Amino acid sequence: MRLSIVTPLDIIVDETIHSLRAEDASGSFGILPYHAPFLTALAISIVSWRSETVERFCAVRGGALTVTGGNIAIATREAVVGDDLAKLDTEVLAQFQADADAERVEHVETLQLQMNVIRRMVSQLSTGADAGKFR
């Protein structure tokens, strides 16, 4: 099987592998040769794969995984390859999770600002409608 992990800016991994383990919202799963076509959304997690004699790891910040015809493709926003699973698990995944949390906070704050603007517009429209300004 051929594995490729890509981000918007770079090709992180492009190599031949024997098996792969990943995680989506339903939990952990594995992919072996001759796997059926498959598509899933990955969680913030660590993807591991085995080649000839080595097991390798890559922390991914979500993304999409597809399996088609012996090829496994992962498209993600961020990916960090490493051989030390403990370091990837503690440092990189914690940073990915913190970044995702910060994005959620920013999104909520943006929505609150938009709602405040809409409320002001509606209140101005309501007071202007009584005075006959919109004729």
UniProtKB/TrEMBL annotation:
One of its GO terms (cellular component) is plasma membrane. It is a peripheral membrane protein. InterPro entries: Alt_ATP_synth_F1_esu, ATP_synth_F1_dsu/esu, ATP_synth_F1_dsu/esu_N, ATPsynth_dsu/esu_N. CDD domains: F1-ATPase_delta. The keyword Transport applies. Residues 1-79 form the ATP synthase F1 complex delta/epsilon subunit N-terminal domain. Keywords: ATP synthesis, Cell membrane, CF(1), Hydrogen ion transport, Ion transport, Membrane, Transport. GO terms for molecular function: ATP binding; proton-transporting ATP synthase activity, rotational mechanism. It is found in: Cell membrane; Endomembrane system. Produces ATP from ADP in the presence of a proton gradient across the membrane. HAMAP family: ATP_synth_epsil_bac. F-type ATPases have 2 components, CF(1) - the catalytic core - and CF(0) - the membrane proton channel. CF(1) has five subunits: alpha(3), beta(3), gamma(1), delta(1), epsilon(1). CF(0) has three main subunits: a, b and c. Belongs to the ATPase epsilon chain family. This is ATP synthase epsilon chain. It comes from Sulfitobacter guttiformis.
